[in-house]
Amino acid sequence: xPVNTDAIGKQWPAATYExxxxxxxxxxxxxxxxxxxxxxxxxxxxxxxxxxxxxxxxCVVYSARAMGPAILDPDVGINLATMLHGSQEFEWDEPVxxxxxIDTTTTxxxxxEKDGKGFYVFETISTNQEGKQVVKGTWTNIVRGV
Amino acid sequence: MSDLKDLKEGDAIxxxxxxxxxxxxxxxxxxxxxxxxIHIDPExxxxxxxxxxxxxxxWMMAQVARGNAQIADGDPRALKRLSVQFRGMGFPEQExxxxxxxxxxxxxxxxxxxxxxxxxxxxxRNAQAELAAP
Lengths: 146, 134
Prior knowledge:
By secondary structure, chain A is of the alpha+beta class. Chain A has helices at 21-31, 41-46, 59-72, and strands at residues 15-18, 83-92, 101-114, 117-127, 133-143. Chain A has a domain at 56-143: Thiol Ester Dehydrase, Chain A.
């Protein structure tokens, strides 16, 4: 059965995430990011950050909230039980700090079939409260047996 | 601050070695919000045909990010881009080794080809990181 490509180009409403110090610390601990700039407000400010700064991969925390509705959208039609996370790319710009408010918008960029698998490529663009882009994500999910 | 300018094509970056403990996937689930039971419930994982609960791919990607950021003394501003392919299942209580080689270097920017493996099991392949002096 060919994959349904109707959802290519579909965009979902922005998801908003408020970045807080304790979540940054919890995430830094879970990934083993040891620097004080993720834990101590003054340490972060002393090296030029606006405030305590999130590790780059913290982007998964605020992006996930925007990716959920896209992956679950019946228009996209992903069978979650057979979905694998195939590849991932992030491009970072402005650092994300305690107190930031991040809006993330998801767009379906590609849907195609190869070797009996469905490939679903989504792009997330995250911007901060000043409208500056903080990260662009490219998420490729692979669904077996389409 | 290590000087990215000192790196040249073909240089190896220092290996990052980390062994996630049995409950790491639970802590990462809480930190990231990804509570997919294949990561935190060994019985569920086995019921869907896996050998046991598997590490979150994005946690492994975070180790690749950390391994690369080491060359800039862990400065989170240095990492500009990271792409990875998830090609294997990672498991708790096994050492994960992140290694990389400089592919391009110049003008204060470096591109590093990176892999992450547990023993002979390459869990992340064809990873590429781009770093620049902040």
